[in-house]
Amino acid sequence: MSTNFKAHDMAEQQIAELDKQLLRRKLRITESPCDIKASVGQRELKAFCSNDYLGLANHPKLVSAIAEGANLYGVGSGASHLISGHSIAHDLLEKKLATFESRYIPNARALFFSTGYLANMSAITSLTRLAEQGEASIYSAKLNHASLIDGVRLASAQTKAMVTLFDHQNLDSLENGLKQDTRPLKLIVLDGVFSMDGDIAPIEKLLHIAEQYDALLMVDDAHGFGVLGKQGHGILEQSQVHSERIIYIGTLGKAAGVSGAFICAAAPFIEWLIQKGRPYIYSTAAPPAIAHTLLTCLELIEGAEGARRRKQLSQLIEIWRDEMTFSIWKKTASSTPIQPVILGSNANALTVAKLLDEAGYWIPAIRPPTVPVGSSRLRITFSAKHSVDDLRELMKTLRIIEQKIEGAP
Q1: How far apart are CA 115 and CA 249, in angstroms?
Q2: Strand (E) positions, 239-370?
Q3: What predicted TM-score, i.e. pTM, was given to this entire model?
Q4: For 304-328, what is each residue's pLDDT tens digit?
Q5: Do 44 and 91 fall into the same domain?
Q6: pLDDT digit string (tens) for 130-168?
Q7: Of 46, 226, 289, 308, which has the fewest Cβ atoms less than 10 A away?
Q8: Burial of 22 (0-12, 13-18, 19+ CB in 10 A)
Q9: Closest to 246 measured CA to CA, from 230, 234, 255
Q10: What is the pLDDT of residues 298-307, one digit of tens each?
Q11: Are 92 and 189 part of one and the same domain?
């Protein structure tokens, strides 16, 4: 069969260009469960790169729960939620999730999605449709996750909503834009914890601005749910905010260790999403066994075991912040399990990631477009299953690698 056609040639040329820029990404196949040690290519690597912050992805209670869920409900849902795919397991999970966040969102309901990407796309595109064409404004943080960026782009294309970018660390531009905005629907969109820097959004200040200028506040707490707050309820618990203006997105495949995501908001907004959320309406529902498993997961997060695991994370974060120093690299002061080490160029990041791999560590290089040009980095993430000794060994290895690079001709 001939492969001599234009699209094929264009693909090869574009991939070659990515190679030149050191931006080509490659898959690595794991041969073991998600854990702090990963079997990759018949080697065991110490993993400091997953989002399994509480170390629940291979928890025996969750392994048992998914087997139980499969026995009860089978392995597939068979249809979208609005056809025949909405199981009692989904319903029970949504009610439990609404209870989780009801202290911070009055009259709360929750809606379960297969992925956080679908949840974000559905929320942004549906909420902007509450207004007439061109009568909505979206204020999006510059460093938002790709799913939020894509949701904003699609909503803008569909509804002609005006889009304004703002710096989440300096809210002056956000407030100045809202002051002059006369559109009836205004939506502020941002991450709760920014995934590549680990910093936490100032939710109390943002809510105050939203109330002052009659805007909705949508928070994607993908990296905060399960980690932040005394009971792991996320950024809303940590900030102790309370408002029907909040549209909360929680991810269930990171600290929760399983899969899926949810939107929690005041009941009228959730009902509108059911009616108009195209990603929700036209996607096959996640397997009920996943929802069944997540019920057990929520008990772990909220209970004594979740508290113990968050305490272990806090200890690791404190040691890293207090003791890890670099001479030529830069680290940011994050109070979350996400700890970036800024290396600058793509070449630097790939070199350090390769040296770590040779030393038995799995910490991939993060490059544009995931992060801004010139800020390629290591994104080190902690799990509650990491011990203090694990962390100190990593710190020692990083110091050796930095000295080696610093002393290279």
Answers
A1: 11
A2: 246-251, 261-266, 330-331, 338-344, 361-362, 365-366
A3: 0.95
A4: 999 999 999 999 999 999 999 999 9
A5: no
A6: 998 889 999 999 999 999 999 999 999 999 999 999 999
A7: 308
A8: middle
A9: 234
A10: 999 999 999 9
A11: yes
